């Protein structure tokens, strides 16, 4: 009774839910979603997945290089910005060697950055990335290769779905909050799913549920000449593209 008498009577019966009307929504200016690569890679959280040794790292390196240069990627126009490639399974020597091949003698862009080691999510990775984008405010593309390298060890109490959803939600919140793209390089399950290529993404539906965009690379046979890139997402049309890897240029 005493608590009820001391409460602010003007707030009684007023919901704290943030409800807005359709008219308010339609009268509000909301900027359209930005794209790093037109029609393929918007801002937000994205995933590129395939079986190991499918050329994902070459894909990621060329993506970061092309965007930093403002060059087209896979035939799509890019929006030039600074890029960070977190090549957490590589060495500086391998990165240098691969970058020489990808650049083909062209000048190296100023806005291309690398990391070969990083803290795990539970050890303040996002906090460190927050500091990085203050230092590099034009950084709009961050590729984490691979997702597993920043996940750490499971505590054992959370189920797989809950853990996936929690960890990726933190990355999505970071990407959305700064209007940039975080692309996670991930692996497919070995067990095929002929009905839906996106069900092959390792880790279950928790990962698919959080990601804004998902891309899956697959082949009929590992040594096949053609690779199918399946793309789906909230801000892109679901499409399938046929890719070929140029072994001389090491580009898709």
Structure commentary:
The strands form two sheets. Strands 5-4-6-7-3-8-9-10 form an eight-stranded mixed sheet. The chain has a two-stranded antiparallel sheet with strand order 1-2. The longest helix is centred in the last third of the chain and has 18 residues, at 160-177. It has seven helices and ten strands. The protein has 252 residues and is of the alpha/beta class. The protein has helices spanning 2-6, 22-27, 56-69, 92-103, 125-135, 160-177, 205-210; strands spanning 35-37, 41-42, 44-50, 82-87, 112-115, 139-145, 181-187, 213-218, 226-233, 239-244. α3 (56-69) packs across α4 (92-103). α4 (92-103) links the parallel β4 (82-87) and β5 (112-115).
Q: Which terms summarize this structure?
A:
two-stranded antiparallel sheet, alpha/beta, eight-stranded mixed beta sheet, 252 residues, globular, 10 strands, single chain
How is the topology of this model organized?
Layout: H1 2-6, H2 22-27, E1 35-37, E2 41-42, E3 44-50, H3 56-69, E4 82-87, H4 92-103, E5 112-115, H5 125-135, E6 139-145, H6 160-177, E7 181-187, H7 205-210, E8 213-218, E9 226-233, E10 239-244
